Each structure stands twice: as C-alpha cells, then as structure tokens.
Known about the structure:
Elements lengths: L1 E7 L2 H21 L4 E7 L5 E3 L2 E3 L1 H11 L16 H8 L11 H15 L4 H12 L4 E4 L6 E6 L11 E3 H7 L6 E7 L8 H8 L3 E4 L8 H6 L3 H7 L4 E4 L2 E2 L2 E2 L4 H7 L6 H8 L10 E4 L7 H7 L2 E4 L7 H18 L6
Parallel strand pairs: 1-2, 1-9, 2-5, 9-10, 10-13, 13-14
Antiparallel strand pairs: 3-4, 6-7, 6-8, 11-12
Helix pairs in contact: 1-2, 1-13, 2-5, 4-5, 7-9
The structure holds ligand FO1.
Amino acid sequence: xxxxxxxxxxxxxxxxxxxxxxxxxxxxxxxxxxxxxxxxxxxxxxxxxxxxxxxxxxxxxxxxxxxxxxxxxxxxxxxxxxxxxxxxxxxxxxxxxxxxxxxxxxxxxxxxxxxxxxxxxxxxxxxxxxxxxxxxxxxxxxxxxxxxxxxxxxxxxxxxxxxxxxxxxxxxxxxxxxxxxxxxxxxxxxxxxxxxxxxxxxxxxxxxxxxxxxxxxxxxxxxxxxxxxxxxxxxxxxxxxxxxxxxxxxxxxxxxxxxxxxxxxxxxxxxxxxxxxxxxxxxxxxxxxxxxxxxxxxxxxxxxxxxxxxxxxxxxxxxxxxxxxxxxxxxxxxxxxxxx
Length: 340
Ligand code: FO1
C-alpha cells in the first residue's frame, strides 16, 4: 500500500487533492489497482466559534469538495444553499452578518459542536462527518487543540483600532485582506500539538505533497504546529511542494499580502525559501513551479531543492491531475525508493 500525505488549506488545497485523486484513478485504470491511500492534513487556523458553533472552514471545504457537496462557484460552503437561519440570526443582531452560514452548512456545525460537547476530539468528529461525505481520503485536522489565526491591524477600521487583533476570517472575508496588517498570530499554538494521527501520517508516508495553498496562513500554520516540522524533517518520504505564486501573482486569494507581511518575496522562489530545503533545516526536497517561473530553477538547485516547471493554473481537473503527476514525478526523482 503506497501512502501519500497532503498538507492542505481550503479551496486551493481541496481542488489540488481532487486532481490528485483523478490522477491516481487514471493510473489505477491503466496499470491495475496499485492501491494508494491519501491522507489530507488540514489547516484549522481559520476555525472559529460563531453563534456558539465550532466552524472549521478548511476541513469543511475539503470534505464538501471531495464529497461532492461544495458550491463549485464559491469553492466553499454547500451547493444549493439557503440562508433562512442566518437571516434570523442577523435579525437578532448576533454573529457576523458578513460571514455566511448557510442552512445546510449549519447542519455540519451543529453536529460537530454537538460531538465536541460530548467530549469527542476534532479528529474523531471529522472522521464521523466524513463517514457521511466519503471524501475518498483520510481527513485529519492538524491538531485537536484550538489554534486560531488572528491578525494585528496596522490601522483603525470600523470599530477596530490600530494594533487590535481580529480573527483571520474577519480580515479575509469582511475586509478582503484589504487592510494592512503588522503580524499574524496563531492563538493557542503553544498549547497545541500535532495529533498522533498527523505524526503517523507524515512518518509513514511514501510521498508528502504541499499543494498551492496559502503559504503563510494555511501551510505556514500547519508547519507551525509543534511536532509537524520535525516529523517532516525526519520522515523517509520525499516532500514536494507546488508554488501558489505564478509569475509574481497569487493564483488565488491574497497570498501576496500575507507574504509581504512576513517579509517574504511574493515569488515562486520566495515561497520555496520560506519552506526551506530539507538539507538546510527546512522541509522541501522538491518544488514545482509554473513555466513562467522556470528562471528560478538554477537558484532552487543552489538552495538544495530539486525544481521542475509545468503549467500550474488549476483551470480544470485534468490540468490539476497533470500537476499532481508532475509533483509525484519529482518525488520519484528525489527518492527513487518511492516510485508511485
Ligand atoms: N468566504 C467568504 O468569502 N465569505 C463568506 O461569507 C464565507 C463563509 C464561510 C462559511 C463557512 C465556511 O466553511 C467557509 C466560509 N468562507 C467564506 C470561506 C472561508 O473564508 C475560506 O474558505 C477559508 O477560510 C480560506 O481558505
């Protein structure tokens, strides 16, 4: 049994994994069922308590996308959604009226909160929700402890003062990351730890892939969880990442603003240097960039990272499947023992 472990954020991560599964299915169809297990370790730094419910945006985006329930246009939330309950909540002036909790989506948050209140860990809750959605992967929260990404505002806006900390989702959704921030803080990080399931999924993998999710607030948050970096540095599996930046622009979301805040060049090379080469204290063995960034290949080799270039726009599932195939090819070239 070959095992692939993916460290993913929300929309970009979910779409990449969907392409990876399509690629693996095509390989199995051709050369017979060489069973490959995929485990996805999801960022939970976007999670929040809202109206008394625990909302886990990246876990749910991956679960709905791979389970066939996602709103394809938005990339998050449920397809065919209605907003009756959230209209009632807003009528009472409660919650975040700029953050849509649809009626169907609320079902997930209610069941999750119900199980958490009974004492279940987020890992078990996620496993239970996936028994319904059957995403075709094992979906793991990066930690069972609450780790929430908050941002410190560089200036006052609305009811907030300069220097205030607000939840990442308020910055991301209410302000579209349009307000400058001075730092990201993962609240609760020092009490959190990677779950045993996460450590096992990293240490027993044949290949580890870091998809083009947000390198600071999604992948960066997972890497910051105590235990994760060490597990990545010591696993026998090759670690291959895909650049979320193409030609100096983020493929999706606001990765540039995030990289600027942490002082990293918003380039394919900048992100590779942020993750670092495993041979020099980082986590990467290989790095896949778009053809537009092929100029960085020599610099990557100097970093000690095996580079490759291929089309990285996830325009459809075939392009994404080809990206996954390229990433696996780099993994095989880095460590021949893990041919997939
Ligand atoms: N994103 C938005 O842009 N607007 C929303 O109102 C919104 C609501 C929402 C509710 C549940 C959920 O799981 C995700 C939701 N998202 C919304 C997406 C979310 O901000 C992003 O998916 C992640 O946080 C970034 O990957």
